[in-house]
Amino acid sequence: MTAREGTEALDERAREVLKEIIRLHAETGRPVSSRSLAKIARLHASSATLRNLMADLTDSGFLRQPHTSAGRVPTDKAYRHYVRSLMKPRELTPNQREIVSLDLSDAGHDPNLLFPAVSRLLSRLSGEVGVVIAPDARRSVVREIRFVPIGREKALAIQVGDGDTVFTRLIETGGRLDAAALERAGAYLTAEFGGATLVSIRNRVTLAMQEERARFDRVLFDILDLARRAILPSGASDIYTDGTRRLLERPEFSEPESLKRVYRAFEEKANLVELLDQCLEGEGPRVVIGSESHLTSGKPLSAVVTRYGAENRPPGVLGIIGSLRMAYPRIVPLVEFLGKTLSGKLEESGEGGEGPDGRST
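User: That's the sequence. What structure does it adopt?
Assistant: Structure tokens below.
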């Protein structure tokens, strides 16, 4: 549902009532009754009037009634409308900014320290679960490939990407390719695969190796095998999480089966990496609710995520995952601020290559 659709569906009175229901439900975690709403002076409405408004909001799919005699709780649709049309983001306080500055200053520019520090900050300042998904090297674009012989049976594979970023990896050659052959191999691979991403190259190299094996072109097969070992990272993005135990404090996760479903969703790495794909297009934080992600679908969960990263390098994603009733006006600006701050730290570092062991340098 778009923001425009939500605005057309509700008049001013209905929007104010929905905002108050969401606020009260976020504070207490319990269904909201018309009687509790009637105590809010600025609504200027009786309990009977509010019951009718709540009934209309229920018919429109913005509220649901958990039990026959209970009040109402906001639906996924209500929270989407709230985030896109009703809420007013709150600026970070000076104290929060100082905490971020001090913690990230201690972490320096080393991603191995920065990423867990950011996930801890996200959790600490939100009261929810902080998540940082490291940039996925498989999405980087390869512009040039070169090989430098190191002794008789090893070579240094040099991969040049966008923005002149350089990745290196020490590989075994088995002594089958001398310096001239390695130079020709680099020229061939650059001409054949330059401008493609690592994911694309992986698929094309695998297919080409199958074809060359069938044709028994040993030299070309060795070159392709060299490419496979030189430029294809073995794993997906690293994921840093902090604060998952905070979910235990929420009443909506008090039932063992509900908590089990949530923890299972966190354990499935693909659910978190999916958030990376959802943030590759567009700028600024994105709020993911309900059916918009496998992580949140069918669970009282939502995620506020944004991409980050240095220019001309693969992006990563950071954000906050927590209760559907999280404090979005406070959390959306927090995620945006830390996304920009982490991007700035990575830009300053000028890092992003790989050492001979395949790790970042």
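Residues 328-349 form the longest helix (22 residues).
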